[in-house]
Amino acid sequence: IKVLAAAIDARDPYTHGHSARVSQLSLKIGTEIGLSKKELEDLEAACLFHDVGKIKIPDSILRKTSILNQSEIKEMMQHVEYGAEILSKASSLHKYIPAVRHHHEWYNGKGYPDRLREDNIPLFASIISIADAFDAMTSDRPYRHALPEMEAVRELIELSGKQFNPHLVKVFMRIKEKNIISSQSYHVMQ
Q1: Phi then psi dihedrals of residue 68, to 5 deg
Q2: N or C, where is the chain less crowded by C-beta within 10 Å?
Q3: Quick one: which H or E segment has residue 21?
Q4: Where are the beta strands (DSSP E) in 26-172?
Q5: Tens digit of pLDDT for each residue in 90-117?
Q6: What is the C-alpha to C-alpha distance for residues 91 and 93, in angstroms, rounded to an integer?
Q7: What residues contact residue 187 under an 8 Å CB cut-off, 6+ apart?
Q8: Phi/psi of residue 56, nearest 5 degrees
Q9: Which helix (H) or strand (E) holds 155?
Q10: What is the mean pLDDT of residues 19-28?
Q11: Distance (Å, rounded) from C-alpha 165 to C-alpha 70?
């Protein structure tokens, strides 16, 4: 799974390591909300598969160095359905389909592909959505520079209850606060 995720990320030099970073952030959220060891393992696999559908996205769109036009955006949005289709080929991977298909749903029902809302969005998809967005905002892209982490956190807070599950945003903020406190303690100790 990790090899496949690395291969997907390698198609686009600007997202190299994205799936692994999304996985790390998602596992922190999952741990904080008390997921079991087995649930964390499934969450990790779902994270690594979350962009598998990008395999079917043409390089002209995936590697474009400027902002996508409307038809390109529409094609890029298909990656969640392509991913679900790819995972449907093996029965052992079916359990990851909900997270892969729905990680771009919005809490307010304005996401895609099925316009699910609130608790109708699978938990793993809601977790991945936050980690995915945070990593995207804090990574350089051809058409914009990375945001500082605190600005990305502010964006998550602003979109809490709209794009993101508000409970999970609060959990993410707790994790970030713990990281800041522990890194400050580390510097004080040196």
Answers
A1: -70, 145
A2: C
A3: helix 18-32
A4: none
A5: 999 999 999 999 999 999 999 999 999 9
A6: 5
A7: none
A8: -90, -5
A9: helix 149-158
A10: 94
A11: 27
